[in-house]
Design goal:
By secondary structure, this protein is mainly beta. 5% of the residues lie in helices and 46% in strands. It starts with a helix and ends with a strand.
Amino acid sequence: MRKLQFLLVLCIFLALTGCRQSGANDNDVSYNNYIDEKFDSTIFYKNYGDIIGADPSVITVGDEYYLYFTNSDGSDCTFIQGYKSKDLMNWEWLGRVFVPNRDAWAITSLWAPEVIEKDGKFYMYYSGFDINYQVMGIGLAVADSPMGPFKEYCGTLEDGTIIDHTNSPFNYVLKEYKSNFKAIDPAVFIDDDGKIYLYLSQDQVDNESSVYGMELSSDMVSIKKDTITGPLVYVSQSWESPSSTHRWNEAPFVFKQNGKYYMTYSANYYASSLYAIGYAVSDSPLGEYQKPDDNPLLQATEDWPFLSGPGHCSIFPSADGTELFMAYHSHIDVGEAGDIRKINFDRVTIKDGELIVNGPSISPQLLPGGSSLYKNISSLATVDASDYDASLLVDGVINSLYSKTDTREVLFDEKTTIKFQFDSDVNIKAILVYDSSDYLLSANSYQLSFSNYKVGDVSFNSSYKYVDEFGYEIKIPTTASIIQFENLTTNSVTFTFDAGVAISEIIIVGGAK
């Protein structure tokens, strides 16, 4: 009930406020301080949740993003849809990119498609109800384009087994390995050395789901039987287990950064508001994965009344390859949770080995690298922050957790001026200031000036900081004060913050002069 009441209050506030337009000030710089939905779509995207679906898989092809998912809008799960976009906000529907043959091994319960490209071919691994074994199993469909159409794999495996659309290329091997191996949520990872790995969840065998892995041959389908390993992750942390009778570690996704293998996974029950994303780290693709103590990576809390059940993610690069993003689903109904889910996108970063999500976000975020003429130029400046650790202000980490304010935010114990000095003039299009996720340390405003101009006080959106009907003081995290400029050239940007305010990140958006 608290979540629903909050959303009603938020919607009323946004409807009444509108955009505060500020014209040229005394020093003749024109700017807009946005406190509602009106923002420049050439600079920002926003998680509107327009695409209703679950278990998203996103791949980056050139300057376009391709999205595939499980149907969760009330339509049946007898086909897979596809979308494409250049900005993560405006999506073009590609139609039903995969529809199985009517006499295929699986024509229902088509869930959790994961697409990967190799040598110009696109491989879709998916879950489906295997009519041959009467359990969930894993399939493979192949296309020459990310737009499809994808068709069931047909061919001969390395051991001579002939596969067509009437039989799964994977389940027979797994049944040899372990009886009653119900498999869902496939994901494939290609390592730097060209080796290929398949991960999947053994679904609710003995009332528990856990993740297994194995190496594939170069044909992307033949399993190297002696490499089947698991469980790689299993229910082992308290947040993962809502009951002793049904326990889940599912929806694996593996990627590699700085020589480490990161596996994201989902746990708890998918229709529960407590469904969440965790992660584990290993030194090898099929090695021992260690879960950090501060899991989960992303989970709804009382501080996030706008979110329910974030889960089943995939990680993908920005168009220019400089950033990583996470696609994940969450419940449409934040009060009741359930089956109907929407798809969200937020940045992820790794700092000192820790995987961090800059989300969940509900305010505008900077477009992915390569999707805009503008980018974050904060790190190009020399930062004068007195005795404070200025690196925390430009480290790419936007704090979302009350428990991390001490390590991810800069707390000013007195009124403080922070100056960003560039080597030469830069053209600034926007500035985002992320304050604390702690209500008591969050800001109401700050002062802003440039080498030749002074803006004065810049407000934070007050709807992101409030006291609810129960008297709880709440600050919605990962929300920013956003100020945009029509034409501003400067070589410095100066911020002045009041004492007792904590700041998580400062983003200065620049472009060509």
